Amino acid sequence: MGILQVVAGPLSQQFSQLGTVSQIGVAIASFLFVAVFLNVLQQFLFKKPNEPPLVFHWFPLIGSTITYGMDPPRFFKENREKYGDCFTFILLGKKTTVYVGPKGNDFILNGKIRDVNAEEIYTVLTTPVFGKDVVYDCPNSKLMEQKKFMKIALTTEAFRQYVPIISDEVTSYLKRTPDFKGKSGIVDIPPKMAQITIFTASHALQGKEIRDKFDETLADLYHDLDMGFSPINFMLHWAPLPWNNRRDYAQRTVAKIYMDTIKERRARGETGAQDIMWHLMNSTYKGDVPVPDHEIAHMMIALLMAGQHSSSSTSSWIMLRLASRPDIMEDLYNEQVKNLGADLPPLTYEDLAKLPLHAAIVKETLRLHAPIHSIMRAVKTPMPVPGTKYVIPTDHVLLAAPGVSATDESYFPQPDLWEPHRWEKDSPLAPTIVRNVPSEEDDEKIDYGYGLVSKGANSPYLPFGAGRHRCIGEQFANVQLQTILAIIVRNFKFRNVDGSDKVIGTDYASLFSRPLEPAKIYWERREGCQL
Ligand code: HEM
């Protein structure tokens, strides 16, 4: 009796607890069922004829976030087949309208300032990382002035100085890195390319003083800044989470390093430098207002971060593509021998123009592996889509994905094939843009305040964007990537570890797409290697 009472007491409690738990479970399941039911019903019953079709989704708020996030290019292509070039999907509760193809690129990227806005979307992510009063933490007219300062600094004269700097950085990196010691070996290539990119970019764009600091403190600090760029920070940018605390500390510390350097350079009375910091120190806004030191510092962070992800990912893809096509690596080597001489003299800026296949490698790699797969804008006034009945309302976000047209069969024969020779005019795979659409030189030009840029309105190939937010780093990226490529080609042969022509998949988990890791390749020194 006593034992029964002892056992029966807790058992009945447990049963009643179980009952409560299962009641909560039933309540949640019912709630979810009703939410899903209403969400589906709404999609069928309340279609808005003046808005682009909505991608079908079961769950409210989550919408298509997961399928989009796993593989954005595949998401765009599959839904384009179902719904056409212009469609809307739910991204973290927000109605996001995608418009692909050259018309879509033009509609979004060349949208008028009263209609579309980038800073509202990006500022939560970029301002804590770059710092205040620059890029998306200021009126667009000020960003245009800042872009002008940065663009003016990237002159032919500057590039002439950069090529030997970049060549030396690559050579010295390959000489001192243990993974490249010996006659041959296997290396996980993306982390190496990330380091090569930051050393070359920091030295060329920010001067030797800053470059040297990357061997000490700056590399770790930039890594912490980088963590602030994770997609989750679109929602949690404000939260006192460990990575956000490290981001804020890194931002203050890096900005101080730049501001101290600016002061030292002024105090020294330095003259004739070609790095961007120097140009910014000598630039003035309209009305003859000098650029404040903290803004120079924040622009330096922005520039390095903007270039780092894109160039590092592109250079990794180049190396991985070459490992899958050793024949092309030989074509590149032969191009250098033929056009620069068998002794392969030190590379100059002028030499790059003699290496069209090297340029085509960058172009073709960006066609298939553009690091920025989604470009977003807030809609400020209802925007009628020309030639359709659609009007995009102001509670939508617009999303351009130039990568879709860059891999569209109507412009690029065998679009999924990485074939740099296709950029030769008489290649059977030559893009229709090379064959019969006006080239960028013939395209309509416009000045948004940072110099004339081509509108790119007809072009299905826009890895550097278009419009007022177009990249100002394009020429620098080309110089940097081609120089790194040329130095690596003259010293190494690559192939896949298993000798196949396979290429690793893409990691879309961060904001910029990049190769999945580890991504190992086999390397072998060339005869006559210059290292
Ligand atoms: C903007 C791509 C390298 C600095 C952009 C945009 C794209 C892009 C697509 C437009 C973004 C938008 O419309 O929202 C690339 C690629 C690169 C590269 C593919 C390398 C392969 C660089 C480098 C720098 C740089 C090396 C700096 C030296 C910038 C800046 C903007 C920009 C300042 C302007 C942002 C704005 O106006 O909103 N880039 N970029 N980029 N990029 Fe690059």
Automatic annotation (TrEMBL):
Q: Which GO terms describe its molecular function?
A: heme binding; iron ion binding; sterol 14-demethylase activity
Annotated membrane-spanning segments are 20-41, 53-70
Task: Give the membrane topology.
Answer: Single-pass membrane protein
What PROSITE patterns does UniProt report for this protein, alphabetically? CYTOCHROME_P450
The record ties this protein, via InterPro entries, to:
CYP450_sterol_14alpha_dmase, Cyt_P450, Cyt_P450_CS, Cyt_P450_E_grp-IV, Cyt_P450_sf
CDD domains the record matches: CYP51-like
- Record's superkingdom? Eukaryota
Localization (cell): Endoplasmic reticulum membrane
Q: GO biological process: what's one of them?
A: antibiotic biosynthetic process
Please tell me whether the keyword Transcription regulation is annotated for this protein: no
The entry sums up its family as follows: Belongs to the cytochrome P450 family.
Q: Write the protein's name.
A: Cytochrome P450 51
- Say which species the protein is native to: Neurospora tetrasperma (strain FGSC 2508 / ATCC MYA-4615 / P0657)
